[in-house]
Amino acid sequence: ISYPSFQVSDTVSAANGGTFAGNVAMSGTLGVTGATTLSSTLGVTGKITSTAGITFGSDTSADNVLSDYEEGTWTPTLDFNTGASSVAYSERKGTYTKVGRLVTVMGVIVLTSKGSGGSGRVQITGLPFNCSTATGSNQYSGTVEARFVTLSSEAIHAEIGRSANNMVRIMRSQSGAQVAEITEANCANNTGFLFTITYEEA
Predict the structure, then answer these.
(1) Neighbours of 167 (CB within 10 A)
(2) Integer distance in angstroms from the first to the last C-alpha of the chain?
(3) 174 forms bridges with which residues in the sheet?
(4) 64 backbone dihedrals φ, ψ, rounded to 5°
(5) What 3-state class would DSSP assign to 132?
(6) How far, rounded to the nearest angstrom, does the alpha carbon of residue 18 sit from its chain's CA centroid?
């Protein structure tokens, strides 16, 4: 059965099947319960919602279904291994993009006070998603710009997943040794961190 033209008000029996040889013009909602194949270009000015996800080309593997895309904001919180009281900020914000299970977070923290009573490693919490703890893929590294941090000449980076899957730690390199943590002792009352890190969602 060939339908050279079709309007929303028309009814097509599912049992008959058929092919639309011309244009499909609609201004309402189209509900499809079976498989639909397009051999030309589909132009959409509204939103397409898929509850099962999206696959590309001839791929039918469930592992390759794109099931999520999301953008948003999050609020980073700076603390130390032994928590400090009265940490204060002049700037504190974050954004994220999530494609499937891959999450990229960006954050900026600028202090006006590092508080009192804190000690140990710098840790940033409040991530929008925890990272994967799967064996062999549970450590992720990203870039960081540090301001007013007392160090020698070590390179620094942001890291998630080494000891916990819900926080970013700021790490420094050491000559001939493992990386080490940036700690409260390295920080001042006006310390700031600008960081980006990509990781796999738990």
Answers:
(1) 22
(2) 48
(3) 177
(4) -105, 10
(5) coil
(6) 42
A 10 A CB-CB count for 95 gives 15
Decide: pTM greater than 0.90: no
pLDDT of 188 > 50? The answer is yes
Please state, as a whole number, how many other Cβ atoms lie within 10 Å of the Cβ of residue 117.
11
Per-residue pLDDT tens for 102-158?
A: 999 999 999 999 999 999 999 999 999 999 876 555 789 999 999 999 998 788 999
d(CA 172, CA 178): 9
Report the DSSP beta bridge partners of residue 108. Answer: 93, 194
Any idea which residue has 């929008």 for tokens? Answer: 128
- Strands 2-3 and 19-20 turn out to be parallel
Q: How many helices (H) and strands (E) does the chain have?
A: 0, 12
Residue type present at position 175: S
Residue 29 neighbours by CB under 8 Å, 6+ apart: none
CA 114 to chain centre: 28
